[in-house]
What does this fold into?
Amino acid sequence: MIESRHLLKPMHNGQTSPFALMLSSLPSLRVLRTPLPAAWDASLLVASQNRCLERILLTRPLVFFGVYGFAGTGVEVLVAELLARLDEHPWVVEAQKHSRLLRLIAACVT
It folds into this structure.
């Protein structure tokens, strides 16, 4: 499994990651599932420019104890949870300025 949070990170020179650029033009991409970034970077904004993209599912980690020890998974971040954090979460504060990005995230409600 590839961790998209590493692939979407901007390059050291500040340029957009090649992975984000690839996602922005991938014709078969309909849904992008990725962890909610802790801080703003333009990678998801770049990926959101893909006209075939219908939804962006943001996740947060969920760690639990199972039969074989600790395990983890990503749980979808509810849109209502994001709306409650509009003024405090650094990524959400900046994302508000980009209507298509917000529409793709809000598309998860339906």
Remarks:
- The longest helix spans residues 99-106.
- The chain has a mean pLDDT of 78.
